[in-house]
Amino acid sequence: MVTVPPDAVEFLLSRGRLERVEPSVTSAGFLVAEARRHVVSAGTLAETDPSMAFVAAYDGARKAMTAVLAAQGLRAAAGEGGHTVLLDALRSQFPDDREVLQQFDWMRATRNATAYPDSDHPTATRADVVEAVPAATAIIDLAVRFLDLP
């Protein structure tokens, strides 16, 4: 694993892990709206389909992080580890919100175990959803503050 320095955005760009795109606050706003819907869906599905509920909460957090980058004219490059790049890029830019953003790491691991189940890694449970919904909501709130959305 590569250690990401404090100026992670430039580092990730130089490594081809981030790409420059046209900045779009409109796209960012759309992603945040979708992220909010995903978290609502997660709450609705928690009892009947915890795996899908967890993935919805995770996707809400992921899309909120993607929104921040979209507004900055950045996106994670396609390929393995693209979701980790989101965390690395945002963690370096929002040092006061590292604890909030760190929640994405366990959510990513649980989402991967749920999407690609095996006997060594349990899939998401209702209890995981109960933790993931407020974690995703906090990440969405960070994006909303950054983007100055209502």
UniProtKB/TrEMBL annotation:
The HEPN domain extends over 48-144
- What is the top-level taxon of the source organism? Bacteria
State a single Pfam family of this protein.
HEPN
Read off the InterPro entries from this record: HEPN_dom
Q: What is this protein called?
A: HEPN domain-containing protein
- What organism does the record attribute this protein to? Cellulomonas triticagri
